[in-house]
Amino acid sequence: MPCWATIFLWGISGWAFYPAQIASIIRIEPQASMIALSLNASSMYLGFAIGGALGGAVLATLSPNDLGWIGGTSVAASLLVHLARGWQARPKPVKIAG
Fold first, then answer.
1. Average pLDDT over the chain, rounded to whole?
2. What is the dihedral of CA 34, 36, 42, 45, to 10 degrees?
């Protein structure tokens, strides 16, 4: 039974933020929301495919024990890209001459 509980919690944590993400995309540009939502879904499916291909390559060349650290490295790299992108998007303070 603990296995099912873990899978349940993993599923909830993985999809809990998806409705908020959709709402944010629609709020940014309501007129283009259909295109933006389809691009968002396409990018998610591309990520799923890349993850499956990477996992398959690991299993074909290394051992199943290597899946954890390679997956963790992928997550860490994604987090770094996200943080770097957020850093670039911050507004710069305006200096007012006075």
1. 88
2. -100
Domain ranges of the chain: 15-89
Question: Following CA atoms 32, 38, 42, 44 in sequence, which dihedral angle do they give, to the nearest 10 degrees?
Answer: 90
Sign (positive or negative) of CA dihedral 44, 50, 54, 55 = positive
Q: What mean pLDDT comes out for the span 48-54?
A: 94
Taken in order 69, 70, 73, 75, is the CA torsion positive or negative? negative
Q: What's the pTM value of the predicted model, to 2 decimals?
A: 0.67
- Report the pLDDT averaged over residues 47-62: 94
